[in-house]
Specification:
Glutaredoxin, 5-stranded mixed sheet, 17 strands, 33% helix, protein disulfide isomerase activity, Thioredoxin-like_sf, chaperone, endoplasmic reticulum
């Protein structure tokens, strides 16, 4: 009879060691490293991608690495398909071309991509596993609310910008294009859709998309282009959802400041919509050509008392118009001059030419002094920028460069 053979079992100490190793060293998620050879392919094929732009020497990047990896572990359990959600990273020292392509100005920067397109708003929330995971879940949620009865449209919140799509069927190229646009701009507009019999009354000429601007009596605007041309419908929707004059708040201040453009700001009381409307009209009339060189904003006088104090104003002085160049603040002389042709535009041009800065330090330019009047060198100290304090904090990011505006 052959002797029985029993496998050798590890002793109790070995078992405990193996168990501890398994408990305290969970499987780490493989974060996808991006380079110039694979970045387009990986991002273009990802429904949603969160990319960590980092540098190894940056202590904030070092602190984020384990948090980012653990958030990836959590999310990949919920979205196992590799193309549903991608967590990726770019070593900006090794791939400076990619960092430059996406205008990275601080480490670490977390940017969201949808099907290869970078979203305007980067992730600026809490740097914790829970917060990052919740952010991704939110990004994966449907950005379009389906309407079951057209009566819902008549009761929309008209303080918001609403985009409504009426489609014969959900499984169509028209709706898929609409869905792509909504995925990108859902932070700026409310998107709704209706299908089949529910939408029939609004489809007398086929599928269509309508913009309902803020205001109970504001007229609707109809999109007249091709519903399958993504570039056209995206440009139209972005124009409607992102106003020329935006409101600055403490929540979006960092984002607006990081755009790097000086601010032209109307300070007004919250219920003073008349002054805001005048400002919007004059910006559109006089300054549309300056879009891209300066940000047009409006701010609540009560909430932004501190910047007003910097220019020796109080809410009682509102409405007030000022420029914040991120170095100094300059006040538009008189709000009542707003409608004087070219006056507001000249104020902005004087910023770009350096005239506002020179006059604060040296008095009026010689060309502005009446003949025979002596030229005086009047030393002066313009108020320092107040909104620069809303820029990304050096206690949260490694900032790569300082901006030197006028």
């Amino acid at each position: 009879m052959r002797p029985a053979i029993f496998p050798l079992l590890p002793d109790a100490g070995c078992l405990l060691l193996l168990l501890a190793s398994w408990l305290f060293n969970p499987t780490r998620s493989e974060i996808t490293s991006l380079d110039s050879g694979n970045i387009d392919d990986i991002l273009n094929n990802a429904d949603v991608a969160l990319v960590n732009f980092y540098a190894d020497w940056c202590r904030f990047s070092q602190m984020l690495h384990p948090i980012f990896e653990e958030a990836s572990n959590v999310i990949k359990e919920e979205y196992p398909d590799k193309n549903q959600v991608v967590f990726a990273r770019v070593d900006c020292d090794q791939h400076s071309d990619i960092a430059q392509r996406y205008r990275i100005s601080k480490y670490p920067t977390l940017k969201l991509f949808r099907n290869g397109m970078m979203m305007k708003r980067e992730y600026r929330g809490q740097r914790s596993v829970t917060a990052i995971a919740d952010y991704i879940r939110q990004q994966k949620s449907n950005p379009i609310r389906e309407v079951q009865d057209l009566e819902e449209i008549s009761s929309l919140d008209r303080s918001r910008r609403n985009i409504v799509g009426y489609f014969e069927q959900k499984d169509s190229d028209n709706y898929r294009t609409f869905e792509r646009v909504a995925n990108i701009l859902h932070d700026d507009c409310v998107f709704l859709s209706a299908f089949g019999a529910v939408s029939k009354a609004e489809r007398f000429s086929g599928d269509n998309v309508i913009y309902k601007p803020p205001g109970e009596n504001a007229p609707d605007m109809v999109y007249l282009g091709s519903l399958t041309n993504f570039d056209l419908i995206y440009a139209w929707t972005q124009d409607k959802c992102v106003p020329l004059v935006r409101e600055i708040t403490f929540e979006n201040g960092e984002e607006l400041t990081e755009e790097g453009l000086p601010f032209l700001i109307l300070f007004h009381m919250k219920d003073d919509l008349e002054s805001l409307e005048k400002f919007q009209q004059e910006v559109a009339r006089q300054l549309i050509s300056e879009k891209g060189t300066i940000n047009f904003l409006h701010a609540d006088c009560d909430k932004f008392r501190h910047p007003l104090l910097h220019i020796q104003k109080t809410p009682a002085d509102c409405p007030v118009i000022a420029i914040d160049s991120f170095r100094h603040m300059y006040v538009f002389p008189d709000f009542s001059d707003l409608s004087v042709p070219g006056k507001l535009k000249q104020f902005v041009l004087d910023l770009h030419s350096g005239k506002l800065h020179r006059e604060f330090h040296h008095g009026p330019d010689p060309t502005d002094v009446a003949p025979g009047q002596p030229i005086q060198d009047l030393a002066s100290s313009p108020p320092e920028s107040s909104f620069q304090k809303l820029a990304p904090s050096e206690h949260r990011y490694t900032l790569l460069r300082e901006k030197d505006e006028l």
